[in-house]
Structure formats: C-alpha cells, structure tokens
Design goal:
Order of helices and strands: EHEEHEHHEHHEHHEHEHEHEHEEHHHH
Number of domains: 2
Structural class: alpha/beta
Helix content: 40-55%
Shape: globular
Number of strands: 12
CATH topology of the largest domain: Rossmann fold
CATH superfamily of the largest domain: Glycogen Phosphorylase B
Number of helices: 16
CATH architecture of the largest domain: 3-Layer(aba) Sandwich
Strand content: 15-25%
CATH class of the largest domain: Alpha Beta
Length: 349
Amino acid sequence: MSRKKPVVFIVGLVNFNWSLDWNAKTVSKYLDKDKFEVVTMSTYRNQTGTEGLQEVTLIKRKYPDKIWQFWAHFRALLKADIAIIYRHDEYKRYQWLYKLFRCPVVTILGINPNLENKRFGLTYWNSFKSIYALSPENKAFCKEAGLPMSDTILSNPIDLTKFWEVRKIRSTLKQVAFVGNDFERKHLSEYLDMATTFTHLTFHVVGGYEKELETLKEQLTGYPDLNNVRVHGMIDREALIAILNDCELHILPSRKEGRPKTAIESAAAGLPSILFYGYGAEEYIKHNENGFIVNDKQEMQACVQALLDDPSLLNKLSENTSAMAEAFDIRSRITEYEDELQRLLSSLG
C-alpha cells in the first residue's frame, strides 16, 4: 500500500491579482504532486485564472465572501497536515480554528516586517512553526523587528515562463516602467521627478491602490506639460508583460523590500533595473553589469543619463539579465520549498 501523501494547505486566493496571491499560486502550481497533495482557495472575483492548477484541489469561495471564507478554511483544515500562510489577515481571524485542528503553520514573508509586527504583534508571529525570509537582508530586517526567524532562506517564488517568452535585448532607451503599490513607501515621487527631467522618455506607472491613484491623477493634472507619464493602475499579468515588452528599463526607488519580484520578471524579459542599496538587491544586481544599485535620486538620474549617452551600455546590461533571472526561476528553486516542507513534516512525527 502506498503511503499517504502529506496535504499542504496554501492559504491564498490563487486567481486574485495580489502579489502574495501570485506567490500562493506559483507554489501551488510547482510543488511536486507526487510528493504532496496541495489544497488552496480561489475567489469568485476571478482576476488571473487557474491555469496550471489542474492537479490542485481548489476550494471555491463564492459571494458573500465573509461566509465562504470561513467555510473554505474549515474544509481545508479537515485534511491539512501543514499550512503555508500568505493571507495573514485571514489566518489571524481564524487562528483559533487552526489551533482547534492542530494544524502547524509557516509563512514566507513578502511583507514589510516593521509595519506588520506593529499590526499583528509578537504573539501572532510566535504562533508560526517557521517564518522564512526571502533574503539574508530581509531576514535581518525581520529579526530586528522582533520576528522569530528560521535560519533557512526561501527565495521569492517567481514563475517566469511568460516573461521569458517576450525576452529581447534592449538597445535604445525610450520607455521606463515602475511597478508597485504603496506609492509613498516606494518613493514614486522620485520616479516622477525624472519625468520632468527626461521629458523625451515615457514613464509608465503600474499598480497603486484606488485612493493613491486618485491622488496621483490629481497631481498630474497640475502639470499640463508633463504628458510623458502613463498611469495604468492595477492590471493583469498579460497587460504587465505587454508594458514591459515595450519598455527598456525598470526602476524601483523603494528603500525597503523583501525581494522585488518585478525586478526579476523584468530581467527575464530583458529589462535591467535600477534599485537601491539597503535591502539586499546587491546580491543579484551587479552594478553596471546587469543593472544599477544606487544610494539616492541623483545617482538614479545619473544612471538614466548614462544609458542615454551610451546605448551600448543598455545593450550589455540587457544581455546580462538572463543569468540573474534564471537563478530565481521557481522551476530551479521549488526543491528548496519541498525539502523544507519534508523536514518540517518529519519533525512533527
């Protein structure tokens, strides 16, 4: 008789367009189904589809979600051996239910530990069997915030398949992309400052919550001559790929991140990035080789000017993005997740 496969409950909505739900979808898709039975959730607000999840048990949440949310967690916990938490608000709401079923929980952080530690408190974080960081620097930030971190690092799960399909070497800088939410924390204002300096370039803004998008559009109306900014708001993955395909450079002025997924996705498509020192970007971005690492806005603008002055530099950076992206492709990193799950399950007896 074959041994029963352990059941992994991945706590996310795998057809919802949010970064942590994309993580949930990627892990659900690529975990070896010969080793694990995977259970996760989907929403009636289908935004990203369920492509590639044929071997995954999907618990569908219908309207009204507040009722179906509880039922989905309950159904999954009836059979789960371990849960990976991506939706922290929901886990906190039903933490008592996880305790009732004695289901151990782990999480891979893709959130700001300083903000979330204040929001949830140490008692919440101590409920996890293991908390994994995305990088050594991310781990250091989390430990500084007081979170009990695992020694093991688990890289951000990134499915690059669609981005490899549009990969091409960039040669002339004409269009630039910013991708992200929480504009103030990610210093979007510094990105927009460059639009006033490099008026012949097009600056795309992808993402943003409803209120900050309204504020941004109001701000831009005050600059009638600033017509080189394109605000796209929240878009699906196909639309993002189309925008990146038209651009030659990705810029993220944020000073604190886990590991910015879009920088890796952009690299797969052939776009180098300008990122900031301080959260570990120098682990994978080699300055002036496959992208730029900068300290301030002035250095960021100088890098853009260097690309305009020397198109061969952009060509070199674009060519060199391939190896960096390959190192983070989920297809080459999923065994790290599988090995860690096996270790945890073995420790539980």
